[in-house]
Batch of 2 targets.
Target 1
Amino acid sequence: MPVLRVRDFEIHPGYFSTDEQAALVAELRAILAKAPLVQPVTPRGTPMSVRMSAAGEYGWISDRKGYRYEALHPSGVPWPPIPECLLTMWAALVPDARKPECCLINWYDPAARMGLHQDRDEADLTQPVVSVSLGDEALFRMGNTSRAGKTESVWLRSGDVVVMGGSARLAYHGIDRIRPNSSTLLPKGGRINLTLRVVT
Ligand code: SIN
Ligand code: FE2
């Protein structure tokens, strides 16, 4: 399918086939068995609606102490390795980038959302972030590098990949809502979003 561009956001609809998505979900289940999802709280103590885990050398953590990357899951175990198919995708879509050091796993139940934010806890902001959507569709809002100003939204579907590079790397983005029961990939519904990042 053709690539869709919204400003510097590069959207690849249906990048992963249904079979590839199912195989990836099986790998994610094995990762989550070792590094279970946790419900983060903001530094002010407000619970986030998504639940999170990670793969790779680092996972992104939010708790009372703030936002940061950590080399260990809160339980003290290392994060499992990033699935090979994601490393292959990264090499194909962003060949000039350094290797990803984190695959953040966000789990959205039907009521979960993610407020408009920038991804800026990484040391090298010249490196792209690549996002993979699995399961229920999600309304993805894209802004610019200031919180104010116009935004545009698209529905992301299971198997879609978004590359956030160039001016999109520091653009505000978020998930307004998911559309329950819009995918049969996950037997109990919901959505998984993966974001691959270079951390150091
Ligand atoms: C994120 O910005 O970390 C998540 C985006 C998404 O869920 O598609
Ligand atoms: Fe983000």
Note: The first strand starts at residue 4 and ends at 6.
Target 2
Amino acid sequence: MSDLLTRRAQRLGPNVPTFYDRPVHLVRGEGLWLWDDTGKRYLDCYNNVPHVGHCHPHVVAAIARQAGTLNTHTRYLHTGVLDALDRITATLGHGLSQGIMVCTGSEANDIALRMAQAVTGATGIIATDNTYHGNTTATAQLSTRRPPIGGYPPHVRLVPAPESNTSAENFAAHVAKAIAELQAAGFGLSGMMLCPVFANEGLPNVAPGFLNATVRAVRDAGGLVLCDEVQPGFGRCGQWWGHDWLEIAPDVVTLGKPMANGHPVAAVIATEPVMQAFRTAFGYFNTFGGNPVSAAAVNATLDVIEADDLVNHAAAMGRHALDRMHALSHPAITEIRGNGLFFGAVLERDGQPATALAIRIVEEMKDRGVLIGRIGRHMNILKMRPPLPITAGQIDLAINTLADVLGAHEE
Ligand code: PMP
């Protein structure tokens, strides 16, 4: 392993993140399970990209079949991209009926930002102050882990990310203030981009209706509501989309990570008028986006979600997981958070974020063969986000292991 770390540092350069103090060298995956180079097996309770399970044979076969038949791009006619977008838009309401397939969530969000500019003629944009929307120049300006060189540009306003006890009115008031500032500065408002479960913010327990006042404020100012569904989308939270759960109607949604079970596919879906404004304002072509192999991967992933009823499964398993999480008793756990198969525990000591403890717990869980992660402003929130086909027995295994590992840190 140390050879591999040295090779990585030499070839990839410095500061390339790995998980864990002692990183894992994974060589194989199947369903909920991963194996490392020593043959050790891990239960994957972290990765949302292998949405229907690692290396699902139906998706693998569809990719292989299409790769052996034809792979071009969307300048030639092909049914694959249309079938995929037909099926996705059928799960979305609110007139979200037209889409562009791209390769990453960052690209999708980049387009969403440009759509908002095309519709409004304005550039002002709002996001939360503890989020991540991507790695392009424009989306990185809305991403707060590392501030952009030169600082945040003046057309970007970041409002305080909600906590579980933030009121809807308080959050909306910050948004209204940001809108007023953008208008006063002459940028106007193009829109607000947000993840409807505030995943990177730390998954606060906000209730349906939480964003109603915010959405009203954005709309009243002529802005668009851009929902980044990269994390909650495709059923993770027991409903097809995070905005379904929050009961809001976006103008644009962006999709990514789980969309093709690991094949690099993402998309932006908009209403017809929004798409028309975008297509009029910008020429857009994406060489790889929507290619026949990617489309086959999406369609096969959707096949499995539908055939195995994974959205309802996520709801049922999410209830089981949250019941088990709430039953955990440990002095450092101050809150259980979650929604469907996206859940976690806030760790604090003496009212302060217990980040060091969270790091140790994640590392020891890995040593015990269960992969989980951390989120939140202080990275002190344990994060569990398994592939959707997880069983109740596997959830029990993960949470029993968590109870044991936490138990070794009772002091
Ligand atoms: N939006 C959210 C909410 C994300 O969590 C991420 C990735 N972590 C992205 C966008 C960017 O997606 P990608 O890495 O595919 O560009």
Note: The chain has a mean pLDDT of 96.
